[in-house]
Design goal:
three-stranded antiparallel beta sheet; 16 helices; globular; disordered N terminus; mainly alpha
Length: 503
């Protein structure tokens, strides 16, 4: 198809060739599209999260992973076609040959992936695609990029078609003993009790990194009788109460900053994706690398949900939330806990109702997401101590921004904010640390991993670069991104600048 600009040029040539003196209306300029197509689709994704209702964090994290690995495979296909040294890494599901326009490949992959996940809920992403493509003139490269994106999204969606995420959910039957979580008004229905059975994106199973119960307990009675439980019971009773007098103003702000539990927010996975964008922008990550960063983060978050829900519902204990525990402490068998039927958590919905999320407490989904995210981010940037300022969607923290001096500091605050909100025990957060770190490491080591070449490839030559450290830093970053495992810096032929080789 000929572009508007090309048609205008042909009309002008025709008028001049016939000697006709007639005005030729210039073709309208193409509208401005997004400056960064990865950021653009991240905003589309998180806005979609806001517009969904009563969908748990597991399905939302799954949708993000499907979109981002589709975009990654599309981007990787285009870059590999340019030059072997430019490959982002091994494909997740599919590498398409032939090349094409990078942005078009990313746009169509995102559009088709989101349509595949959310189309059945009435969402349509055609307008968002049109906006993304608005300043890309028709060309063979655009057509090829479209085909690449459509093929990678189809391959990822096909891979996830039988992942058990849509299996019928049997009625949840609570364990009929003290300590067992059960649905209670105003908590609403049970959310995704089968999610631990969903096929992971990279883990071998949802139980791969399943943490043990606190203190080595093996049953409800053993856990509730422990001194550790009594200590944490009284801690959350004091710090997590709506009318707490010991919780600080900063802890209260942090509790709501990380909450994002209610409809209309981008939920916990969306907040961490937004923080990823903030960090990537501040650190100047180019769009070609950013697509892989988001893909690795999203895969980690998707599997973090499966890990957490495996522990919540499929272990030996489906642990009650603090509100239920404090209301019913008279029957918990622990002399160091005291019931308070009027106790309410700080957590509150848009209607002013104090609530706990409708699934068991142990382990914390927020904490599992956060520790997995922090490990992937620290691996990607080669260090943990990067300062950034994050944002929130929670209506009780409107406009609040908080600054963190490291990814792990942000994760720790996210995890323990749930205690100050009154919806989790301390060990719900602490028991997520090692599994989150292990999952983060496993995710970056076992998917979208390094390229391999028997021969060294010239990755970069920079005229005038005389500092070997700059060359090594570039090579080290390629390794952090799992693009190339080995690199070598060598003098170029002029013996004054460095060449970077990868293999």
């Amino acid at each position: 198809m000929l572009s508007a600009r090309r048609l205008g040029a042909l009309a002008l040539v025709g008028a001049l060739s016939t000697g006709a003196l007639q005005a030729v209306t210039p073709a309208p300029a193409l509208a401005a599209g997004p400056a960064d197509h990865v950021n653009y689709w991240n905003e589309v994704l998180t806005q979609t999260f806001r517009e969904t209702s009563d969908i748990g964090p597991g399905p939302l994290a799954r949708s993000a992973a499907i979109m981002y690995v589709s975009m990654y495979d599309a981007a990787n296909s285009v870059l590999c076609a340019q030059r072997a040294a430019d490959c982002l890494g091994q494909p997740y599901a599919l590498q398409v040959g032939g090349g094409g326009d990078f942005n078009s490949a990313v746009d169509y992959a995102a559009h088709d992936a989101l349509t595949g996940v959310f189309g059945g809920l009435g969402f349509n992403f055609d307008d968002e695609l049109a906006t993304a493509q608005s300043d890309i003139a028709d060309s063979a490269a655009k057509t090829a990029g479209r085909s690449v994106g459509q093929q990678t999204a189809a391959a990822v969606l096909q891979r996830r078609a039988s992942d058990h995420s849509s299996d019928p959910v049997a009625a949840y039957t609570p364990d009929d003993v003290p300590g067992a979580w059960r649905p209670a008004s105003p908590n609403g229905p049970v959310v995704n009790p089968n999610w631990g059975n969903v096929t992971p994106f990279v883990m071998t199973s949802g139980a791969q990194f399943r943490p043990p119960l606190p203190g080595g307990a093996t049953s409800y009675a053993e856990l509730l009788a422990s001194p550790e439980y009594a200590e944490q019971f009284n801690e959350v009773k004091t710090y997590g109460s709506v009318n707490s007098t010991v919780r600080t103003a900063d802890q209260r702000q942090a509790a709501f900053f990380w909450a994002n539990d209610v409809n209309g927010t981008y939920k916990p996975p969306g907040q961490l994706l937004q923080h990823t964008e903030i960090v990537a922008n501040a650190q100047g990550v180019p769009v070609t690398s950013k697509v892989k960063l988001f893909a690795q983060v999203a895969v980690g978050l998707a599997d973090a949900a499966i890990l957490a829900w495996d522990r919540k519902f499929l272990g030996s204990v489906d642990l009650w939330r603090p509100d239920m525990a404090i209301h019913q402490a008279a029957g918990d068998g622990n002399a160091d806990t005291e019931a308070d039927p009027s106790w309410q958590p700080l957590s509150v919905d848009r209607q002013g109702n104090h609530f706990s999320p409708p699934f068991p407490a142990f382990v914390s989904g927020h904490a599992t997401f956060a520790y997995t995210w922090a490990h992937v981010m620290a691996h990607w940037f080669g260090r943990d101590d990067i300062t950034y300022t994050g944002t929130t969607d929670d209506p009780n923290a409107a406009g609040v921004q908080r600054t963190f001096t490291s990814f792990s500091a942000a994760a720790d605050e996210d995890a323990h904010s749930r205690l100050w909100l009154g919806v989790h025990w301390h060990f719900d957060a602490d028991s997520s640390l090692n599994p989150g770190n292990e999952l983060g490491e496993f995710a970056v080591d076992n998917t979208m991993y390094y390229n391999h070449s028997d021969d060294e490839l010239l990755y970069l030559h920079k005229t005038g670069v005389t500092n070997r450290n700059e060359c090594n830093n570039t090579g080290r970053q390629l390794s952090n991104e799992h693009r190339w495992e080995f690199w070598r810096c060598a003098y170029s032929n002029n013996r004054t600048t460095y060449d970077l080789y990868v293999h």
